[in-house]
Design brief:
372 residues, 2 domains, six-stranded mixed beta sheet, four-stranded antiparallel beta sheet, globular
């Protein structure tokens, strides 16, 4: 949370014309202590020449969204009271983190998560969008814990992250289906960290030899989850790219706490590689692609995308479209190819898929359900 006094002055002089990216974070240590990620995004934005960012937050360590909702005014809450802040309508972006693993709290839990993930997220959505109809709400898809003593930890961790991603998407889709405002989007932190891990294992990342160096050595061995400050820098890169919808490649490797001292920085070479991986992964992530395209002119009348007799059919009615990519909900490419006036794609299994059709006219993305 920065520029509080300045923000009051600007508010008085401009009759409270709030910034386009005034961001409110709600969550736990996935954002780092003292909302480290919010501070890092601030410095990345400044380096990019962006002057529309400020942030505030509510933070309760190790908590689910349900606890965030119900304990918003507890004296031990760090930051501010989310109910009071969001009700002002001054926040354009709201980023919410669920407890890890989501599978243990999605349908409530016996240890204090009385609301389901769906209900708690929906309540925050109603509060934020009710006060500011243009507010964009995000759910941060964080990675899971792992046992770093396990010789197969890298694979087991990746498998678990991919296995649970559909739960994050199900929560988002379910809440979106009951609301008429802007759709909630995912901040896909986990797949970016996985890609960095894979690149380190391939030996193509400078200045780091072991992916475990990204995690706090003081974490419990059997429940490692918290990154180092360098790891949180990657989390900040993902948030920067998602919030501002632009590449972080080439931005500073140096970020600072609000009190002026520096976070432990990655080397310039490592930072650049992290930036490149972040942007490359997001360019292929269907959730991120959908949010970017949602801001472009609609081309739905040019295309027909649907399922008939368990086959996907793409009909080009107008415009210039020549290729398609089909993703599953884990963000993995299921199929890709060229299209003509009428294209039929068989042998698609039961499930939910994201279809991206592109060409000279632009890009259209649609979610489809295949029943068998």
């Amino acid at each position: 949370m920065r520029n509080t006094a300045l923000g009051i002055v600007v508010c008085l002089l401009t009759t409270c014309l709030y910034s386009q990216h005034n961001t409110y974070f709600i969550g736990h240590s996935g954002f780092g202590w003292d909302l480290m990620v919010g501070e890092m995004v601030n410095d990345l934005a400044e380096d990019a020449g962006i002057t529309t960012y400020d942030y505030n937050y509510q933070q309760i360590g190790g908590s689910c969204i349900s606890i965030q909702w119900e304990r918003h005014n507890d004296p031990d809450v760090a930051g501010s009271d989310s109910h009071i802040e969001l009700a002002t309508g001054e926040y354009d972006v709201v980023v919410i983190a669920e407890q890890i693993p989501i599978s243990e709290v999605i349908n409530s839990s016996p240890w204090g998560c009385d609301l389901t993930s769906y209900d708690a997220l929906d309540r925050f959505y109603d509060l934020a969008v009710g006060a500011n109809p243009g507010a964009q709400v995000y759910l941060m898809g964080f990675w899971n814990e792992f046992d770093r003593s396990d010789q197969n930890a890298h694979q087991a961790w990746s498998d678990l992250n991919e296995e649970l991603r559909p739960l994050w998407m199900h929560v988002i889709d379910s809440v979106n289906s009951t609301n008429n405002g802007p759709d909630i989007r995912l901040v896909p932190v986990a797949p970016v960290m996985q890609a960095l891990k894979d690149s380190i294992n391939l030996g193509v990342v400078p200045d780091i030899d072991d992916w475990l160096e990204l995690f706090d050595p003081n974490d419990m061995v059997e429940a490692t989850i918290h990154p180092t400050e360098v790891g949180y820098y990657l989390v900040a890169l993902v948030h920067f790219a998602v919030i501002f919808r632009q590449s972080p490649v080439g931005l500073t490797n140096e970020t600072f706490h609000g009190d002026g001292w520096q976070f432990d920085p990655p080397s310039q070479a490592l930072a650049l590689k992290m930036q490149e991986i972040t942007w490359a992964v997001l360019q292929e992530d269907p959730g991120f692609q959908q949010e970017v395209i949602s801001s472009l002119p609609k081309k739905s009348s040019d295309l027909g995308i649907g399922v008939k007799d368990n086959s996907l059919e793409i009909e080009v009615r107008g415009g210039d479209y020549d290729k398609y990519v089909i993703y599953n909900l884990n963000g993995k490419v299921f199929d890709t190819g060229k299209i003509s006036h009428h294209t039929k794609i068989n042998a698609i299994p039961k499930g939910i898929f994201i279809v991206k059709v592109s060409g000279a006219t632009g890009t259209v993305i649609k979610k489809v359900l295949v029943r068998k």
